[in-house]
């Protein structure tokens, strides 16, 4: 039982380090500072165990990142909405398009009319914007894959570090392999 607890503790530390690495990569310095301050306070001042300090630091840094991201998303949305509103002033409004309130009246959405209205409103400008969004999404996905490839050595180093703390070689790797085998067995049972 102690073996599983120590693996869980090590896993918490690795996940927290991944949160820190992500915050550094995204240049979210506020979250990085919160992470460092939380670890310092919890471990050195309050004398919490290392894995608890890392868990709290990871959670607080993630919350900080999400709150900061949410504000940035809302800000970007408002800017885009302002630009669209400026564009809409030049164009005539379609009276045929029902409002969102009328479509969702009574929490029931008429899928057919919604789809038909969407198809009616597709124009070359919309298609161009969708193409740009798709291109941007593909670029983001490519960058994400590149980031994951860059994180692989860091995760492996973290796993080696956990193995050193546990005093056994490849114990973390063995744990993930056992988890993978168990997942495959569960998948086979579901198919049968």
The number of strands is 0
Strand coverage percent: under 5%
End-to-end distance: 32 Å
Order of helices and strands: HHHHHHH
**Which range best describes the helical content: under 10%, 10-25%, 25-40%, 40-55%, 55-70% or over 70%?**
over 70%
**How much is the average pLDDT?**
76
Radius of gyration, Cα only, in angstroms? 25 Å
Judging from the principal axes of the Cα atoms, what is the shape? extended
Largest sheet: none
Number of helices: 7
Regions with pLDDT < 50 over 5+ consecutive residues?
none
Structural class: mainly alpha
Number of domains: 1
Structure commentary:
Helix content is 83%, strand content 0%. It is an all-alpha fold. It has one domain. Helix 1 packs across helix 6 and helix 2 packs antiparallel against helix 3. The longest helix has 43 residues. The mean pLDDT is 76.
Give descriptors for this structure.
192 residues; 7 helices; mainly alpha
Please describe the topology of this protein.
Elements: H1 2-25, H2 29-45, H3 50-90, H4 100-103, H5 111-120, H6 124-166, H7 171-191
Helix pairs in contact: 1-3, 1-6, 2-3
């Amino acid at each position: 039982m102690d073996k599983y607890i120590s693996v869980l503790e090590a896993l918490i530390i690795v996940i927290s380090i991944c949160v820190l690495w992500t915050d550094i990569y995204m240049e979210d310095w506020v979250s990085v500072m919160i992470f460092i301050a939380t670890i310092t306070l919890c471990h050195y001042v309050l004398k919490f165990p290392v894995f608890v300090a890392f868990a709290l630091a990871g959670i607080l840094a993630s919350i900080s990142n999400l709150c900061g991201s949410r504000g940035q998303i809302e800000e970007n949305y408002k800017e885009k909405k302002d630009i669209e509103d400026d564009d809409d002033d030049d164009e005539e409004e379609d009276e045929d398009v029902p409002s969102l309130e009328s479509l969702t009246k009574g929490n029931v959405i008429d899928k057919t009319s919604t789809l038909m209205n969407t198809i009616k409103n597709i124009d070359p400008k919309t298609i161009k914007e969708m193409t740009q969004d798709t291109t941007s999404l593909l670029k983001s996905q490519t960058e994400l894959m590149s980031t994951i490839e860059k994180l692989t050595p860091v995760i492996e180093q973290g796993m080696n570090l956990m193995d050193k703390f546990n005093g056994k070689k490849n114990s973390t790797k063995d744990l993930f392999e056992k988890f993978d085998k168990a997942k495959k067995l569960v998948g086979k049972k579901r198919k049968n």
